[in-house]
Design goal:
The complex is a heterodimer of chains A (205) and B (498). With 205 residues, chain A is mostly helical. Chain A has one domain (2-204). Chain A has eight helices and no strands. Chain A is globular. Chain B is an alpha+beta fold and 498 residues long. In chain B, the strands form six sheets. Chain B has a six-stranded antiparallel beta sheet. In chain B, strands 3-25-24-23 form a four-stranded antiparallel beta sheet. In chain B, a hairpin with a 4-residue loop joins strand 5 (81-86) and strand 6. In chain B, helix 7 (413-426) runs antiparallel to helix 8 and helix 8 packs antiparallel against helix 9. The chains are: A mainly alpha (205), B alpha+beta (498). Chains A and B meet through loops of A and helix 9 of B.
Chain lengths: 205, 498
């Protein structure tokens, strides 16, 4: 039942971010398992949204939907954010451990899940003229999540407001750098493999 | 923004394959290796191959005349006769639909008063022939037998600079006898004359479009030399005009720039008598021809238009030798034709015309000096009659025709939309929604959804209210039960204490 309580604690976090993120870290009221559940649910909803949103609000072409891409997009962004944030905060006197960051970021995704699910249902029943409600909800879910990620970072590392802003900006830059290095690495490895296989083929024939 | 390379692969390959397979499947005429593709654009801006709407039938080349056509610039079709402005031979020809000459007009009032390079011809319902006698700078009106009734020259107005030569090019006359003309180098709109040929005003001036950025850059940030080298922003000129049965004037614009095309500028207008553009633009794309450049980098350039009585119009693109068909709402129906040297291709298309029931489509080519005749296919007949029946309100008939269209072309978005509209009108909202979804038409889907929702609400009002009541009442009751129990407990405690 502990797991259930940890999941339910997500509701507390999104409405009381300061208090919630504090207890998440210091009182161990959440867990990595629950955080990863939220990430999994976000992935599930991203896919569900693409396939089940009503015709009027669905800009995605069904033949272009690729579940693998959805999974990787969310998972990679999540991991990249956490890793980049950890790299940075360990240099900038952050108090959070890697695990704390993963948990806090995972809990910050809860509004995404809570808002997007009813949005899918709503999109089936409203006309284009009433689309404002739909788009307002969509914006709300993003803004709320961004807000939670921000305060999650602030509370987890015990930063001041200004320092958190700086950290967040640097984290985004860091994510870019990690991606760049990753791509570079894969490229070089690919070239090396091609080189070795070519030599092997040359020698063989 | 638009990937043209992909477009080629997407358009040409499937178009060839599919049109070939359609022919194989339908077992049509073996001669029919058609020298062009027919396609249309779908919701996603992709070209989708579709069955041919018009097939090349024959060429009227007038080789038998003492002198064939020479650089003809305009053509008008009326009651089974074709009137041709045979420009470089300085005459107007009237020929039958199969190309037999019936009448020739080469002189205005007398033998000494020859026409000079006429570029436009128009025939009214009464058979009166109007000619834009370009070389002589005048417009002429003949009776059906070819006798001159009226001639009028340069419009008397201060609005046209004295130094500008007056060369009328195209002329049309509406049902009330007002005469409209285009003239070379005049970009203030159409010239409007009254029945006596007295100049009235300019009509339907094309608007100048200058982006704010362009304006600021030009006026505040560029040097004098730069400004001088910049192309002056000039309003677009109308390339051709056509008057439909409702007295509205279709006017095409042929000289749009790449920027205009990318911004979705309109290349055709439908002007009401006050000069206001009333063309319906409900399609997914602006009405300016191909959404991509052709293989040799050319945008569509409209040169002529012909409209049916029920609001369908066919526009001729001189750049790529294509014909674009649009319905009343501005949805792209079909595109066919191409420039080339095979039989059925055009080289320099300049004018388009259709006969009364649109069963034949004529394209005048000034390089081939002949008229190419295209004949409607079974698919085309169903398509056009569906639109016609829809226009006159025969929804049952048009449902049947749309079904035929769908049978021949399951990709047809407008057929789904057409069927959907009929179902919507009949009150079958659920069905209408399905069809609009297949036709990718969000606007009408939203409309159908609105009525469907209303219908469901009315039908299930009792149930909905019941569910709502239960949802609200149960928690309320529970809440009060709790409260009362608490209160009872308190009372009990108090009593026990006493």
């Amino acid at each position: 039942m502990r797991y259930g309580r940890e999941l339910k604690y997500g509701l507390h976090v999104i409405f009381h971010p300061f208090d919630g993120f504090w207890d998440l870290k210091r009182e161990h009221r959440g867990s990595l398992a629950a955080a990863l559940t939220f990430v999994a649910l976000t992935i599930f909803l991203t896919t569900l949204e693409k396939q089940c949103t009503g015709f009027l609000f669905n800009e995605v072409r069904l033949k272009d939907v690729n579940v693998m891409v959805d999974i990787l997009t969310v998972a990679i962004l999540y991991v990249l954010w956490c890793v980049a944030n950890w790299c940075l905060t360990s240099l900038m006197d952050g108090e959070g451990k890697m695990k704390d960051i993963f948990i806090a970021t995972g809990y910050a995704l809860v509004p995404m899940i809570l808002i997007r699910l009813p949005m899918i249902l709503l999109s089936l029943g409203i006309t284009s003229q009433e689309g404002t409600f739909y788009y307002a909800l969509s914006t709300l879910s993003y803004v709320w999540t961004a807000f939670l990620i921000f305060f999650g970072t602030m509370v987890t590392h015990q930063y001041s407001f200004g320092k958190t802003v700086l950290t967040c900006i640097c984290t985004i830059v860091g994510m870019g750098i990690i991606m760049f290095i990753g791509l570079l690495f894969f490229n070089v490895i690919q070239q090396m493999i091609t080189f070795v296989t070519t030599i092997y083929k040359e020698l063989r024939f | 923004m638009r990937t043209e390379k992909n477009f080629l692969i997407r358009k040409l390959l499937p178009a060839c394959l599919i049109s070939a397979s359609i022919f194989a499947a339908a077992g049509m005429d073996a001669r029919a290796e058609v020298p062009y593709e027919t396609y249309c654009y779908n919701y996603y801006s992709e070209t989708v191959a579709q069955p041919h709407v018009y097939l090349y039938d024959s060429t009227l080349s007038f080789g038998g005349l003492e002198a064939g056509l020479k650089n003809p610039q305009d053509m008008f079709i009326k009651d089974g006769y074709i009137f041709i402005a045979d420009t470089d031979n300085s005459r107007i020809l009237k020929v039958t639909a199969d190309g037999r000459p019936v009448m020739e007009i080469a002189y205005a009032s007398s033998e000494s008063d020859r026409l000079s390079k006429p570029q436009g011809v128009f025939v009214t319902d009464e058979g009166e022939i109007y000619v834009a006698d370009s070389g002589n700078g005048r417009i002429l009106k003949f009776n059906p037998a070819g006798k001159l009734l009226l001639a009028f020259g340069r419009p008397v107005t201060d609005l046209i600079d004295e130094s500008v030569q007056y060369i009328p090019q195209k002329v049309v006359v509406d049902k009330d006898g007002r005469i409209y003309a285009t003239a070379y180098g005049i970009n203030m709109g159409l010239l409007e004359f009254d029945t006596e040929g007295v100049f009235q005003s300019f009509m339907g001036a094309a608007q100048v479009s200058v982006s704010p950025f362009e304006y600021i850059w030009k006026n505040y940030f560029s040097t004098k030399e730069q400004r001088a080298r910049m192309a002056t922003i000039v309003p677009t000129e109308y390339s051709n005009i056509f008057v439909d049965k409702d007295n509205f004037i279709y006017a095409t614009i042929g000289n749009l720039s790449t920027a205009d095309m990318m911004n979705g500028a309109d290349a055709i207008r439908r002007l009401n008598p006050t000069g206001k553009d009333i063309l319906r633009r409900l399609g997914h794309y602006p009405i300016n021809g191909d959404q991509y450049r052709s293989e040799d980098g050319k945008w569509s350039s409209f040169t002529d238009v012909a409209a049916t009585d029920y609001g369908c119009y066919f526009i001729l693109d001189k750049a790529n030798g294509k014909v674009f068909g649009y319905d009343y709402d501005g949805n792209s129906l079909f595109v066919f034709g191409r420039n080339g040297y095979r039989e059925g291709n055009v080289q320099n298309a300049v004018a388009i015309g259709i006969n009364d029931d649109a069963s034949k489509l004529y394209i005048l080519d000034y390089k081939l000096n002949s008229i190419l005749v295209y004949k409607i296919t079974e698919y085309g007949e169903h398509l056009l009659s569906a639109l016609r029946l829809n226009d006159i309100g025969d929804s049952e008939g048009s449902i049947n025709e749309w079904r035929e269209v769908l049978r021949l072309n399951g990709n047809s978005e407008f057929a789904y939309t057409g069927l959907g509209k009929n179902f919507l009108a009949e009150g079958e909202y659920k069905k209408a929604m399905e069809y609009f979804k297949s036709g990718n038409n969000k606007k009408y889907y939203s409309k159908a959804l609105y009525y469907r929702r209303k219908e469901l609400m009315e039908k299930n009002f009792g149930k909905i209210m019941l569910v709502l009541a239960v949802l609200i009442l149960i928690p309320l009751t529970l809440h009060y039960v709790k409260k009362i129990r608490k209160w009872a407990g308190k009372v009990k405690c108090a009593m026990e204490e006493n």
